[in-house]
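Everyone, describe these structure tokens:
***
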Amino acid sequence: MDPKSQRLRLNDGHFIPVLGFGTYAPEEVPKSEALEATKYAIEVGFRHIDSAYLYQNEEQVGQAIRSKIADGTVKREDIFYTSKLWATFLRPELVRPALEKSLKNLQLDYVDLYIIHFPVALKPGEELLPTDENGKALFDTVDLCRTWEALEKCKDAGLTKSIGVSNFNHQQLERILNKPGLKYKPVCNQVECHPYLNQSKLLDFCKSKDIIPVAYSALGSQRVKGWVNLNHPVLLEDPVLHAIAKKHKQTSAVIALRYQLQRGVVVLAKSYNKKRIKENLQVFNFELPPEDMKTIDGLNQNLRYCDFSYAVGHPDYPF
């Protein structure tokens, strides 16, 4: 199966490849690895690349995309690239400069999708996670509808083809959808989603509004101190997933990815390991029968790896 042709139509008429390559890595991983892994992902067939200003690797990811265009592997229009507006840039006047900064780092003329990374506004400035002397996050107060209007202007200016959100709950989505004078609906809501947190209610809500759910941490999560609850069980070690994987002669990771695709969810697969990057493309080579889907549904325990705990207490904290 050719992964390049596996796409879903967004509500603005553009198309998003259903399998994306996630580029986030913990701080201690050298940025050069993002360059090599992204180049390899494009070589083996990934066409949807997901990054963010927060990841601090857009320079390398952009370099990888440009080098694969330069050597004739792909054209720019073959690549679907997502960037994200970080929480320190949610004030309307900071939105376009933030996107322009990402474009400058990437050395690309436009991104395919620009999304609000997290609905909790942080104090603007150079620091990604501004804190006071006690280590508490410094919040900002921003009307997300005004932020959204600034994203609409970025789309009109051609800096991004599509606009969406991430980590929004259904009330926050409704706030945007019911905004007077709404010009463009969010095309997607990118959320943590995996068999331990299957998000079925939020997914149904998104689909009812023609908003595509995009799953991050679809393989559980990297154990990143400070961002992830390290006491949670490791999803890919789940015996039920193992048994289904064995039955289909696949890895547990591929089963977790396939599960999302069959639910109509766009799924991001994050790995810097060449063998696993290639393995994840196996997701198009088989189908899970309804009984396996039902079994995986049964693993749900509303377990969230990425709870953005620094933001608890802010009125826009989504969970």
Notes: Residues 145 and 176 are 6 Å apart (CA to CA).
